[in-house]
């Protein structure tokens, strides 16, 4: 396997830093609409359902992007998909900034969503196929760190432009900056050795292995990957085989856990939640939101430090327990608002801080690490695309329904429903999610083929 000397680390980190800018784009889109929504609503008065559609329109595009590009990543390579992502995000950001009405703004956000859907499986796939197993979790976690950096960047951008004329247009148009940087940076990188080998471009794969780590045994690496690509029995018309169902099921399941425990109701609607909790001004809500963004970013760094030490599942358990406690508390802050008085907003902030910290150190990075590791090589692009599509599908349902749920069943009950889903998620992690710390991608695939239980990996 690849060794991890200082020289190899240097190139891996350069590659990971550039590719992870795709995560920054994804995070920017998630965060920027939360602040921009306050000012868009001032210009074009919208119902709660219309606000939900504006926020979730990018998710509609994300489903399209994730669904259409899994196959493209297998055909044309991971790098070209990431380049296409940067181009689409650039165009979408421009269109958002100049949209003359709500309909065109929604259409522009759908376009941006296509880019987000593409990048959300292409970058983790790209990083997992390049990284040595000893630091694979850490490198793939950089994608989630970039997402949190993008969210924080968007919150800061929202505050910077809050008092400008055409404020929300400047906010949404600022996505041009990371898009152009990603487009330039990724153009100088190669594709992954595993994809190159699947296309019988062995020499190019060997060159990349040697560039990443001049001391590695590139020939042995190539042989191991080729052995994995061999069809064990009769070649069927389709690459999908019965044993592959379980990793795809786990991938879709972990995406359900990541989204349906409520994270994007917090990310997309943080300023709105704080206004409901008692913050009177847009600016005050934005300042509180920036603090949440810092917590999200810092705790993702903690996850990166421990994901290859503690393992994936221990982090998931710690995070889910923290999320459960905070969701119950957040719901209670609304249920007992009369008793709490002005303290309600501070209890709401504390609950959101604990929730974000718990998510950032667990489900945030670990869900993406999991799907990048467990999928079989022959269908990795398709399978990660399917998991990513499910992520955005769940996301769409949760985000679109959040404000109507608050209005129909109540604020406290809405957050308590997410708490109940969190309990079910703990059971799913225990029974179905394998521990992949220190296990090679090839070994993980062999374990699935043998029908080994996830609890015995």
Please give the number of β-strands: 0
What structural category arises from helix and sheet content? mainly alpha
Strand content: under 5%
CATH architecture descriptor: Up-down Bundle
Computed over alpha carbons, the radius of gyration is 22 Å
* Helix and strand sequence: HHHHHHHHHHHHHHHHHHHHH
Shape descriptor reads globular
The CATH superfamily appears as MFS general substrate transporter like domains
Fraction of residues in helices?
over 70%
Unreliable stretches:
1-8, 233-238
Please, how many helices? 21
Give the oligomeric state: single chain
Give the biggest beta sheet: none
What's the layout of helices and strands?
Elements: H1 6-19, H2 21-43, H3 48-76, H4 78-98, H5 102-130, H6 136-161, H7 167-173, H8 176-186, H9 193-198, H10 202-212, H11 218-229, H12 245-260, H13 263-277, H14 282-306, H15 312-335, H16 337-340, H17 343-360, H18 363-374, H19 380-408, H20 411-432, H21 441-449
Overview of the molecule:
By secondary structure, the chain is mainly alpha-helical. Helix content is 79%, strand content 0%. It has one domain: MFS general substrate transporter like domains (Growth Hormone, Chain: A). The longest helix has 29 residues.
């Amino acid at each position: 396997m690849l060794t991890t000397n200082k020289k190899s680390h240097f190139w891996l980190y350069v590659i990971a830093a550039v590719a992870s800018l795709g995560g920054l784009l994804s995070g920017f889109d998630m965060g920027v609409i939360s602040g921009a929504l306050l000012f868009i609503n001032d210009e074009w008065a919208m119902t709660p359902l219309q606000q939900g559609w504006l926020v979730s329109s990018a998710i509609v595009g994300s489903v399209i992007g994730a669904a259409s590009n899994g196959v493209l990543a297998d055909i044309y390579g991971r790098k070209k998909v990431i380049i296409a992502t940067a181009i689409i995000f650039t165009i979408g950001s421009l269109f958002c900034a100049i949209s003359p009405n709500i309909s065109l703004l929604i259409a522009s956000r759908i376009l941006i969503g296509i880019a987000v859907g593409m990048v959300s499986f292409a970058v983790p796939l790209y990083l997992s196929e390049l990284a040595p197993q000893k630091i694979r979790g850490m490198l793939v976690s950089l994608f989630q760190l970039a997402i949190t950096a993008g969210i924080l960047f968007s919150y800061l951008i929202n505050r910077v432009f809050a008092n400008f004329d055409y404020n929300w247009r400047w906010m949404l148009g600022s996505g041009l900056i990371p898009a152009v940087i990603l487009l330039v940076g990724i153009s100088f990188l190669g594709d992954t050795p595993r994809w190159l080998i699947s296309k019988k471009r062995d020499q190019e794969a060997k060159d990349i292995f040697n560039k990443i780590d001049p001391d590695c045994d590139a020939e042995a690496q190539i042989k191991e990957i080729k052995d994995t690509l061999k069809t064990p029995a009769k070649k069927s018309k389709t690459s999908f085989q019965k044993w592959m169902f379980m990793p795809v099921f786990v991938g879709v399941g972990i995406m359900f856990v990541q989204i349906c425990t409520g994270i994007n109701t917090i990310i997309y609607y943080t300023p709105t939640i704080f206004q409901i909790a008692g913050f009177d001004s847009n600016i005050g809500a934005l300042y509180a939101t920036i603090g949440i963004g810092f917590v999200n970013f810092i705790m993702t760094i903690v996850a990166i430090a421990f994901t290859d030490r503690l393992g994936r599942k221990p982090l998931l358990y710690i995070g889910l327990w923290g999320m459960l406690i905070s969701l119950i508390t957040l719901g209670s802050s609304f249920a007992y608002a009369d008793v709490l008085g002005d303290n309600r907003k501070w209890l709401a902030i504390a609950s959101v801080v604990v929730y974000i910290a718990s998510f950032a150190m667990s489900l945030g990075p670990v869900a993406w690490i999991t799907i990048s590791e467990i999928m079989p090589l022959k269908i990795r692009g398709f399978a990660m695309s399917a998991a990513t599509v499910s992520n955005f599908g769940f996301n769409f349902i949760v985000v679109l329904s959040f404000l109507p749920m608050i209005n129909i069943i109540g604020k406290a009950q809405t957050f308590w429903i997410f708490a109940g889903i969190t309990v079910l998620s703990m059971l799913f992690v225990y029974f179905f999610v394998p521990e992949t710390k220190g296990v090679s991608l090839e070994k993980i695939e062999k374990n699935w083929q043998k029908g080994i239980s996830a609890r015995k990996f």
